[in-house]
């Protein structure tokens, strides 16, 4: 999966780009539907964090703690079983056929495909497998004695942190892939730091701030939902 590669780097944001929705927010609604949390309190906090994200002001440490708290006492088997239900009931309806086709076209062209997401690795790892990408870069989680602590490990994969984590991963390899030669697909103004670094920024069903920015810079704007 992470072998030496000399093709073009194709980068994909996940939420509201490859998915017709936000997997982090969907996780909160899934927990509510499974009666694992208090409905009113959890939905209020979940919506609050989601609005923070859309405004580019997310407290990602607080959000990760909030996201993981309901499963911190679960063992790996229990977490995996719950995630399988989440994939079937909440994520499968959000997977866009056109998004899967886009990733497949890049893979067929010999490109190295990476999902790079602010959403934590517990939520994103099975989704990345569904898209059959070559690699996943997401917000990593601290683990103690086989259990999540609710804390982030290292740099959050958010805003400028995406650039930092991607560059660190590239530096660890022995090939010719460079951010400056990559294509990056994203919907969010939060991804502006990385969009400004790549050769080919492609804006996908963007939020209003990113649409304005893309129009001013003559970046390509596409939809995977039509």
From TrEMBL:
Presence of the UniProt keyword rRNA processing in the record: no
Entry-linked SUPFAM superfamilies: HAD-like (SSF56784)
Entries under InterPro entries matching the protein: HAD-like_SerB, HAD-like_sf, HAD_hydro_SerB1, HAD_sf
Highest taxon above the source species: Bacteria
Alphabetized UniProt keyword annotations: Hydrolase, Magnesium, Metal-binding
Transmembrane segments: none
MF-aspect GO terms: hydrolase activity; metal ion binding
Name of this protein: HAD-IB family hydrolase
Organism listed in the record: SAR86 cluster bacterium
């Amino acid at each position: 999966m992470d072998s030496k590669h000399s093709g073009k780097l194709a980068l994909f944001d996940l939420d509201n780009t490859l998915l017709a929705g936000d997997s982090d927010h969907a996780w909160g609604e899934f927990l509510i539907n499974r009666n694992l949390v208090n409905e009113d309190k959890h939905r209020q906090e979940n919506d609050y964090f989601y609005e923070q994200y859309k405004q580019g002001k997310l407290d990602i440490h607080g959000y990760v703690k909030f996201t993981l708290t309901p499963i911190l006492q679960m063992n790996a088997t229990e977490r995996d079983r719950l995630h399988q239900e989440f994939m079937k009931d909440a994520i499968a309806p959000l997977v866009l056929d056109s998004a899967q086709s886009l990733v497949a076209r890049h893979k067929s062209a010999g490109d190295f495909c990476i999902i790079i997401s602010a959403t934590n690795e517990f939520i994103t790892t099975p989704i990345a497998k569904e898209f059959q990408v070559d690699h996943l870069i997401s917000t990593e989680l601290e683990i103690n004695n086989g259990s999540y602590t609710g804390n982030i490990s290292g740099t959050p994969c958010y805003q400028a942190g995406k650039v930092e984590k991607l560059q660190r991963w590239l530096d660890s390899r022995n090939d010719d892939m460079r951010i400056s030669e990559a294509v990056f697909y994203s919907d969010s103004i939060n991804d502006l730091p990385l969009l400004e670094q790549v050769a080919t920024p492609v804006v996908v069903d963007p939020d209003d701030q990113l649409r304005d920015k893309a129009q001013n810079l003559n970046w390509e704007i596409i939809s995977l939902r039509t």
